[in-house]
Design goal:
Layout lengths: L1 E5 L20 E2 L2 E2 H10 L5 E6 L3 H10 L6 E6 L6 H8 L1 H4 L5 E5 L2 E3 L3 H11 L3 E6 L5 E5 L5 E6 L5 E3 L12 E11 L15 H8 L5 E5 L5 E3 L5 H8 L3
Parallel strand pairs: 1-4, 1-6, 4-5, 8-13
Antiparallel strand pairs: 2-3, 6-12, 7-14, 8-12, 9-10, 9-12, 10-11
Helix pairs in contact: 3-6
């Protein structure tokens, strides 16, 4: 099985570090976020990993080379010309991920102890096109699920904006279950020809576009450790939870 770590972002919430470095190389107890996620994937036997780069791309490439990929086979997906966000980045890496097996993606600034084997087993059992981790933590942006754990929409609780994958459920949002996206995802490779977006776009747009016709599932792993190390103040929280 292959994986991709999204590492190309500008990290604007992580200033001043990202004025001179990529967020992927921010340290948590002496290890970069990138190293920690590479080692996380290794726990599940995944050692073929695509890493996309844009912001201070040379620093990420140098760190990978100097550390010999921390024991994994790292392939760079180069986005130095333009950052493509998660959806565009995934599409650009198509030829590096395509095959017969499912593949995994994770955002570099997410640290979690989610049991990836359980997510993969859930994905296979549900015969889903896409499955991802979700939790009941507080966030302003929630994905909306029906009682069968299938994705049907998205809601921004701050603005009230709602987007529905299944238009037949519009107006029935109160009956749906809001959960927070964990940014750990299992994809079937069959997803690539189905993606209608191009250029720079969020993978959430693809989920909502495909969710009405295809099975996109949320795996609730509430109770597991999960830290979005998106801001400098998140580092202290991560260091308490991820000591090794």
């Amino acid at each position: 099985m292959r994986a991709m770590i999204f590492s190309a972002g500008l990290g604007t919430r992580f200033k001043p570090w990202t004025d001179h470095h990529p967020k992927a190389l921010a340290q948590v107890n002496g290890k970069s976020l990138l190293q920690r996620n590479i080692e996380y994937l290794q726990q599940y036997g995944i050692t073929d990993v695509v890493v996309n780069v844009h912001h201070f791309a040379d620093q990420i490439t140098s760190a990978i080379n100097e550390n010999k990929g921390w024991g994994s086979n790292i392939i760079i997906s180069d986005e130095t010309d333009i950052v493509l966000e998660t959806g565009g980045g995934l599409l650009k890496a198509k030829e590096l991920l395509n095959g017969k097996e499912p593949f995994v993606t994770i955002n570099v600034d997410i640290l979690t102890n989610l049991d990836l084997n359980k997510l993969i087993d859930f994905h296979k059992k549900e015969k889903a096109l896409i499955s991802f981790g979700v939790t009941n933590r507080k966030t302003s942006r929630n994905l909306l699920f029906n009682k069968e754990h299938r994705l049907v929409g998205w809601k921004n609780s701050s603005t009230g904006e709602i987007k529905m994958a299944d238009k037949s459920l519009t107006g029935n949002e109160k009956e749906l279950i809001p959960l927070a996206y964990s940014c750990v995802v299992v994809f079937q490779p069959e997803v690539f020809p189905l993606i209608r977006q191009t250029g720079k776009f969020s993978i959430i747009d693809t989920y909502l576009d495909l969710g009405g016709e295809h099975k996109i599932m949320g795996y609730d792993h509430s109770g597991d450790l999960l830290v979005d190390v998106g801001k400098p103040e998140s580092v202290a929280i991560a260091e308490k939870l991820f000591e090794k």
